[in-house]
Amino acid sequence: MKQKLNCQGFSHKKRNKSIEEVKETISRSEGWIVNFSMFSDLALSLSIEIEEAGIPALYESLSQILQLSDFDVNSTKPGSKKEWLILMNISFTKGTGDLKMNIPDVPG
Asked: Which candidate, 19, 31, 34, 91, has a CA 20 to 30 Å from the CA of 64?
């Protein structure tokens, strides 16, 4: 059974910019986004799989771009290959709650 870790993050940047930065950071830290849910332009929920040894570096990198809740990265074991699941919720402070996407009509 995978170990689980919950984390809350806040972004004060534009949503699209924050999402791209978070995706790149997770990828650089050798983590994988296995599931996500968008909640208008207010929040995003991510499920991230990562080896235990990579959690401290991921936390450090994400804390450079998000305001993160604390979690005990010192309880992880360096060098461990054990898979962990990080459940992360990111709230966007500049969200309005009424995100609309205009999709053009496709002929045919």
From this structure: 34
